[in-house]
């Protein structure tokens, strides 16, 4: 058998580099690529789209791993408001002043109406849009703590309300939902409720949650109000 470089049929240039006499220099190749890109600029957009898709996939994989590592804090924190007791758990991080959360709220309500005996919603009060958001979440958690049977109606009223949520409007929505407003306001000062919100914010950072809404449907991460993805994840869970 011939030794490496002998009898292999490989040609060499005068400089000793392997190749053929028709090889391009580095500069020539760069010029060809440059010209091709100028003539076909859409390939840059295609490459950027692909890079973004890969980045999203990596982020989703990291979040899925974080979900598994923090399952107790996500699914079993007895301080969190919970609606339903079905076998499929859906966690939502939300902000009452978030317009996309309002859109997703319609999906949440439809899901409860259609599959109420099969789902369990865990609500993660995650105020990130300022003082009004924080006050609304404090009020909601105070109601869950002192008047849990009124939480769902109060939550639905606030999540579907358009516009700002100043103190007087929060109180009005609470009263309409049958909440004892005085008891709610007294409970809002409890440090335990404020600590709960701080813990949810810390959990969100661990998961890489940067916006609302953020869903986990039967363990599958679905960021933002992506109704198509939410339905796909829910249908998969229902089928299994």
UniProtKB/TrEMBL annotation:
Q: Where in this chain does the entry annotate a coiled-coil region? A: none
The chain positions of domain Thioredoxin read 53-193
Tell me the segments the record calls region Disordered. Answer: 1-22
Q: The organism sits in which domain of life?
A: Bacteria
Stored SUPFAM superfamilies: Thioredoxin-like (SSF52833)
One Pfam family assigned to this protein is: DSBA
The UniProt record lists the keyword Oxidoreductase:
yes
The UniProt entry, under InterPro entries, shows:
DSBA-like_thioredoxin_dom, ScsC_N, Thioredoxin-like_sf, Thioredoxin_domain
Recorded GO terms, molecular function? oxidoreductase activity
Task: Recite the UniProt keywords alphabetically.
Answer: Disulfide bond, Oxidoreductase, Redox-active center, Signal
Instruction: Return the protein name.
Output: DsbA family protein
Species of provenance: Marinicauda salina
Q: Output the lineage of the source organism.
A: Bacteria, Pseudomonadati, Pseudomonadota, Alphaproteobacteria, Maricaulales
């Amino acid at each position: 058998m011939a030794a490496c470089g002998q009898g292999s049929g490989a040609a060499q240039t005068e400089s000793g580099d392997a190749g053929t006499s028709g090889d391009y220099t580095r500069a020539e190749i760069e010029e060809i690529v440059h010209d091709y890109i100028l003539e076909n600029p859409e390939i840059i957009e295609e490459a950027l789209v692909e890079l973004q898709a890969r980045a999203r996939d990596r982020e989703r994989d990291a979040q899925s791993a974080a979900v598994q590592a923090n399952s107790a804090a996500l699914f079993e924190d007895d301080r969190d408001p919970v609606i339903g007791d079905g076998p499929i758990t859906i966690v939502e991080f939300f902000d009452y002043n978030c317009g996309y959360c309002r859109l997703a709220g319609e999906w949440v309500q439809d899901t409860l109406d259609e599959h109420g005996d099969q789902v369990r919603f865990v609500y993660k009060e995650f105020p990130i849009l300022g003082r009004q958001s924080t006050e609304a979440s404090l009020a909601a958690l105070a109601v869950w703590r002192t008047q849990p049977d009124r939480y769902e109606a109060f939550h639905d009223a606030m999540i579907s309300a358009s516009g700002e949520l100043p103190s007087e409007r929060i109180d009005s929505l609470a009263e309409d939902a049958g909440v004892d407003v005085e008891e709610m306001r007294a409970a809002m000062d409890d440090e335990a409720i404020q600590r709960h919100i701080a813990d949810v914010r810390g959990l969100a950072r661990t998961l890489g949650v940067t916006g609302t809404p953020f869903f986990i449907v039967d363990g599958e991460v679905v960021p933002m109000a992506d109704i198509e993805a939410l339905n796909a994840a829910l249908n998969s869970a229902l089928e299994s």
